[in-house]
Amino acid sequence: MASANAGGAPSAALPPAPKPRKSVTGTRKSVAVLFLAPALVLLGALVLYPIGYSVFRSFFDKSGDFTALGNYKTLFTDDTILTAVKNNAIWIVVAPTLATGLGLIFAVLTERIRWGTAFKLVIFMPMAISMLAAGIIFRLVYESDPDRGVANAVFVTAHDTFATSSAFPQAHPSTRSPLKPAGGGAFVTRDAVSAGTPVALPLTGVAPDNMPDDAKSAAAAKPDPDKVSGTAWQDFTRGKGRGEVNAPDKAEFGYAGIKVEAVKNGKVVASAKAAADGTFALPKEADGAQLRFPASNFREPYNGVDWLGPSLITPAVIGSYLWIWVGFAMVLIAAGLASVPRELLEAARVDGASEWQVFRRITVPILAPVLAVVAVTLMINVLKIFDLIFIIPPNSSKDDANVLALQLYNSAFLDKDSGVASAIAVLLFLLVIPVMLFNVRRLRREARR
């Protein structure tokens, strides 16, 4: 319907004013608040109140007396707590970075293999194991004994493949032996030897059960005018009064495979290895030389790496953490990778870009938001890491692997110092805030796009 204006021209009628919209549920705000009240009460009781009380309690000492900032001063003067702060810094930098990087690599590579789904399942499977159970598993994995610890069993096997361990680590000459120490763990004859006169080189200290499997009963070497011959054997017979000192006996074993060197003026002129019965023969160049057992004969067997020692305990525990959480990172990154436009990747390859260039200039920039989510989530997670640190390190390395969450537990329940424990809790809360603010700002930027 049209109406005339002052000049007589018709004008369109104004549309009616819109009616006020009701909420989606059709209820008033008071009703919505009523339904939210239980959640708000729980939030206040389980989150806000503990935070407020922790801040309040951090200003009081162990006995409840007001100490102002005394507990916070303790955080930065106590060596044990400083070690925990340092380890937390290592965890925040290393663990999320490695987990995110490995997750990205696995997510990209599993797209190119036939059994990618099965591989992802295997990598993700540790997420189904509790941190407590994972700690027990890796406590056994890192055992120093190669017969029990998987990690050292692998290292010892690889080492012994290229460098055979000595079978005589405890061997040494007796007081009446013609051998004497030569420094560095070697032994040398007291006098020079001559061709045609067999030499007796007795040793003791190796249990008969630990002798090489190919060792045979010791035999006296036969004289040879063109060679320096001799016998190296275990000069010990079980039973009092049995066997002759410094002379081979059939009940005694030869040092099969032991190395003998002829030394003149500090230089090795000849060398040989003993047979199964301990006999050996050196060429005539050894005439007039001293015979020496080099220190390599008595080297202690390689027992692997001290994973649970003070120097490696933190990297070892971080390794167990990666075993659990790399699968989490891989699955999230793989989900983001599935949304990457394939035409962009194909266009880059058609233009001559290598796979590394495609990965670095296209795949990673597109996945940057997903990588940020994974990294931030893991950073928050490692700030409260507790279970693995509590289970894996032995008592001798517990302080070297300490982190703030474990120190909070120790201060509160072992030292009975609620003031220091509350100060640690406040410090952890303050450390989480920047990470949370970064995450919130990132989410808001993404919402504006």
TrEMBL record:
Every ABC transmembrane type-1 domain range: 85-439
Membrane topology qualifier: Multi-pass membrane protein
Pfam families, A to Z: BPD_transp_1 (PF00528)
Plastid recorded as keyword: no
Spans annotated as Disordered: 1-22, 212-244
TM spans (from-to): 31-51, 89-109, 121-142, 321-341, 362-386, 420-440
UniProt keyword annotations, A-Z: Cell membrane, Membrane, Transmembrane, Transmembrane helix, Transport
Entry annotated with the keyword ATP-binding: no
UniProt xrefs under CDD domains: TM_PBP2
Major site of localization recorded for this protein: membrane
Family the entry assigns: Belongs to the binding-protein-dependent transport system permease family.
PANTHER family: BLL4140 PROTEIN, DIACETYLCHITOBIOSE UPTAKE SYSTEM PERMEASE PROTEIN DASB
Name of protein: Sugar ABC transporter permease
Species annotation: Streptomyces rectiviolaceus
